[in-house]
Amino acid sequence: MTSEMEIELNEPLIPVEEYLAAGVHIGTQQKSKEMKPFIYRVRGDGLYILDIRATDERIKVAARFLAQFDPAKILVVTSRQYGQYPAQKFAETIGGMAVIGRFIPGMLTNQRLSKYIEPDVIVVTDPIGDSQAVTEAVQVGIPIVALCDTNNMTKYIDIVIPTNNKGRKALSMVYYLLTKEFLHLKGIATSLTQEDFETEL
């Protein structure tokens, strides 16, 4: 007999077609050793394609992990242009913190800095672009959830969400689903849609 929990885990958050339409599965032409388990195949043009099922499952895992923390102590960081609006929306909706654009060195490690903050957990949009935040989180022992593309190294990442972390629609989709699942686990209903997380062009 399958438990309710198992059914919920196996049921995708949205139909696979919607993930595909948002381009969540489109990776880069590079792959790292660590991201290999999340890669479904390589396309004729050399682009690595991510496994949508793994993305869906990891969004659920990440939401469950984040739901254990006080929302006010969750920090989302992004230097990526297309990640800024959806990341900010995620932070605002759950009641967390956001550092959008440039991450000032010392924000997590230098208590004398006026912008010093003490989150309990950090979400980064791209471990490459947000490497300063990753380095500091590691130094102070804060767990890291990261949106990782096929070329990312995941050495210091506690929870990897395999996704296209460069595309406008892909980033809005992942942040929307993460928000929705987080609120669902907290017992909060939301009328937000993916469009609410989309950056205007």
Structure description:
The protein has one domain: Rossmann fold. The protein is 35% helix and 14% strand. It contains six helices and seven strands; from the N terminus they run ααββαβαββαββα. 42% of the residues are buried. With 201 residues, the chain is of the alpha/beta class. It has a five-stranded parallel beta sheet, with helices on both faces. The longest helix is centred in the last third of the chain and has 18 residues, at 168-185. Helix 3 (52-66) crosses helix 6 (168-185) and helix 4 (81-94) runs parallel beside helix 6. The model is unreliable at 1-7 (pLDDT under 50).
Keywords:
5-stranded parallel β-sheet, Rossmann fold, 201 residues, alpha/beta, 7 strands, disordered N terminus, two-stranded antiparallel ribbon, 35% helix
End-to-end gap: 48 Å
Question: What is the string of SSEs from the N terminus onward?
Answer: HHEEHEHEEHEEH
CATH architecture: 3-Layer(aba) Sandwich
Shape: globular
CATH superfamily: Glucose-6-phosphate isomerase like protein, domain 1
Query: Which stretches are low in confidence, meaning pLDDT under 50 for 5 or more residues running?
Result: 1-7
What's the quaternary structure here?
single chain
Biggest sheet overview: 5 strands, parallel
Q: How big a fraction of the residues is strand?
A: 5-15%
From the alpha-carbon coordinates, what is the Rg to the nearest angstrom?
Answer: 16 Å
Number of domains: 1
Per DSSP, the total helix count is 6
Structural class: alpha/beta
> Quick one: how many beta strands?
7
The spatial strand order of the largest sheet comes to 4-3-5-6-7
CATH topology: Rossmann fold
Q: Taking all residues together, what is the mean pLDDT?
A: 94
Helix content: 25-40%
- Which CATH class? Alpha Beta
